[in-house]
Amino acid sequence: MAVVNLSRTLDFAAPLGAKQKVLFWNHTGERPFTCSECGKGFTRLTHLTAHQLVHTDMRPFKCSDCEKSFKTKYNLLAHHRVHTGERWFACAECGKGFTQLSSLQAHRRIHTGEKPFMCTECGKRFTQLSHLLTHRRVHTGEKPFTCPECGTAFAQLCKMLDHQRVHTGERPFTCSVCGKGFTQSSTLLRHKHIHTGVRPFTCSECGKGFTQSAQLTSHQRVHSDTRPFKCSDCEKSFKGKMDLLIHQRVHTGERPFICCVCGKRFTQHSLRLKHQHSHTRETLFICSVCGKGFTRANTLQKHQRIDRESRDDARKIHKNDTRTESAFKLMERLNSHSRLHLSSQSQEFGDWAPEE
Which residues pair with 69 in a beta bridge? Predict the structure, then answer.
């Protein structure tokens, strides 16, 4: 294949056409169209114009099916495939299809194990640049997405959208077995393990199974001394995040769980449930020995402990009584034997008495 010398092919005396200029800049690396916001350069003015939308809130390309809008025509075309079901890009390893080439390229890294994007703060690596950018907010504390209803801020847009269903009451993900609805598909998937009995996450120390990886991670701290969750008020540390949240109510005085009968407030849901049994007098905990019912588990345990102690005391008394009875019989036999000696002596000496 012949190598073309571009400098000789182009006649610099004559004005270059648009395509010739782009061709020339592609070889020289020149990017004459520069973004005034971030300094990024482009070989075409149209590319610069499309790029500048990144720095604005303009989304001029609207979907005719769902009215969702996009900053570029390419993103709109890729989005259309959601409605049509087209998946042009298929993975050669597993056959999974994707609507965008970039999604396929990111997916391939699952098979190769490649994680080219590294966090400079902690060294953690990611398969996608977007995941790295989202992760960086952990270090910066940035939460750019704010709920318009309550003002709660989030680091990710998807988290804010999930949160907004709390206000709307929308539960689009429904369990086909029991009909229970959920705000997130991931929550529905975890819920399905209840019906199937599958516990895919197993502890390597004790073999206990869990339906969620987060539950396994929390459980594994039982086998170690790590307490990663520290209280900012008293520096007391805890093994679980929920334990820390419950503890912090000691400092804030918050009691979010209210008894619907008497209005008494509690720091924990479990404490409220225990309290409510005092109103219903429902005896959920039954003694297996005597059949007596109790409203609380700790009351039943106390009852069983007293019952065991009473039985142990009875056994000791019975044992002591047996020993006393044996000693009494031994004394009776000794006294009887002594009387035999006395009677034999009186027969031998008659009515003898010592002289005065």
Answer: 62
Give 133-151 as a DSSP string. Answer: HHHHHHHH----EE-TTT-
CATH code reported for the domain at 85-222:
3.30.160.60
The domain defined by 223-279 carries CATH number 3.30.160.60 = yes
Q: How many CA atoms lie within 13 A of 133 on its CB side?
A: 6
Domain 6-55 has CATH 1.10.275.10: no
Burial (0-12, 13-18, 19+ Cβ within 10 Å), 299: middle
**Segment 93-140, tens digit of pLDDT:** 888 888 778 888 888 888 888 888 899 988 888 888 888 888 988 888
CA atoms within 13 A on the CB side of 316: 6
Residue that is written with structure tokens 């219903």 in the block = 280
Token pair in block for residue 252: 């804030």
Where do the domains of the chain lie?
A: 6-55, 85-222, 223-279
Can you give the pLDDT at residue 41?
81
Assess contact for 78 and 63: CB atoms under 8 A: no
Residue 197, φ and ψ in degrees, nearest 5: 80, 5
pLDDT mean across residues, the chain = 77
Sign of the torsion angle spanned by Cα atoms 85, 166, 189, 101: positive
**Residue pLDDT, tens place only, 140-177:** 888 888 998 888 888 888 888 888 888 888 888 898 88
User: Which letter does DSSP use for residue 23 in this model?
Assistant: H
